Amino acid sequence: MSEIGTEIDAVVFDVLGTLVDEPAGLRAGIRELAPALDEFGVERLLSLWQRHIEREQRRVLDGDRPYLTSDVLDLEAARVVADAAGVDEPAAVAALALSARRLPPWHDTVAGLARIAERFPLIGLSNASRTALLGINAHAGLRWHQALSAEDARTYKPDPAVYQLAVTVSGLPPERLLMVAAHAWDLRGAQGLGLRTAYVARPVGDPPAASDRFDLHADDLAGVADQLDHAQR
Question: How far apart are CA 13 and CA 101, in angstroms?
Fold first, then answer.
């Protein structure tokens, strides 16, 4: 495990949840929509949003619905949340949908990316649309050498076609890429195509199961960087 820094040539990062705190941004949008809500009410509406996105992405993956960008799904989720909050103003719904692009970075994200970028090309790989990813990157100050959207594959992770985007763009064999994510399901998808994997713990992630075998485990991006650097020490 400690030698992985000499075995990879580029690092691929999940964005939502791994580098930015998606629930925090959505909570802020929900509070703007309905300022009178208490914390319980905010969490209830956040759960409605998350369940809608997860369900509709799964329908796309299962072939039960044609591909739609994350922008469309975010607007749908915003309408569901606004209906539940008793808000029917189109401008307010649109503003809530855009909160999915105003996501704060985790405290270690910007410095961690900068450190890893000193040694490796960085590729962002997100289920967010191209337009949404541009907004997310700009708002959170994310540094990339290349940012790829699942929109280019017209499907969503963990479909192998999304991970193939990073393989194709890098021009590298899959085993020379390291996929970093806070979601075990995402890393399993990357493993299916032959990428190396690094799990980074986040409060909103999907922790590994006992049967998962990822190449690296870290508490934050500094931990990922430390392990990548270890081989050169």
Answer: 17
Q: Structure pTM?
A: 0.95
**Mean pLDDT to the nearest integer, 27-54:** 98
Cβ atoms within 10 Å, residue 41? 15
Tokens of 132: 């949404």
pLDDT at 161 over 60: yes
Closest CA to 158 of 228, 62, 226, 73: 62
For 31, the token pair is: 């509070």
- Token readout for 38 is 């208490």
* Cα–Cα nearest to 163, from 187, 137, 199: 187
Q: Cis bond leading into 104, ω under 30°?
A: no
Residue 159: Cβ within 10 Å count: 18
Of 30, 147, 148, 24, nearest to 97 by C-alpha is 30
Closest C-alpha to 49, from 71, 72, 27, 78:
78
pLDDT tens digit sequence for 108-130: 999 999 999 999 999 999 999 99
